[in-house]
Design goal:
The chain is α/β, with parallel strands linked by helices and 238 residues long. The protein has helices at residues 13-24, 49-64, 91-116, 141-161, 181-187, 197-205, 212-223, and strands at 3-8, 28-33, 41-43, 70-75, 122-128, 169-174, 232-234.
Length: 238
Amino acid sequence: MAKVCILIGGSHGLGKALHHIYSQNGFRLVELSRSGTGNDHLFLDMSRRETAIDTVDQVLADLARDHWDEVQLLVNGATISPVGPLALSEPKQWWQHLDVNFTVPISIFGRFQHHFAAHPGKKIAAFVSSGAAHSPMDGWGLYCASKAGVNQFMRVMALEQSRQTQPIQCAILDPGVMATDMQATLRQASENQFSQVERFIQLHQNGQLAAPETVAQNIYSRLAQPFNNSEVLDVSGH
């Protein structure tokens, strides 16, 4: 079978683990990020939305010309910065956050629909979300809002796809808390920025952060099984 995985943000943490497991299971990988390496890597800076979408658009157009029995688009790239109430940061930082976490992800899903609308075979569009999408967390206003926004977009996309003759399956992935660079960033925050910083420090010290490899395996296994369109899939490591 000809299978391809388009992985947005596959250079570190969960993305790196996803890259490994999909490669091990016969998928051709196309990995897009700022700091990836290897023959299947393409540079993508999601904070520069115009050039980012141009890059992804060309990749999707090229792939859509080929025959694939299965196509999976996994959008994993995200940022947590700036952490803290918006009074502690500047509008340009807010806009960059929203480009990375909201504008570019939904644009990627939109172009995926455009290029693969009539493509036969199994098609999955999956978004790596967060519990923050439905649980307010002080200091995470932008992160909570952007994750919730893309979740709702995915629900609408699933509804629209249900009316298509060659529908794309849409999945929202909840990875739980993991041992990633993002967690390390949060542990360096002050209580003025994020009142629950001590809780996250304790999770790390007590070994309660799941390994990205475990979550990646859960994602691969769960997407290989039937799921309801736009369902939030628990792929956490605990």
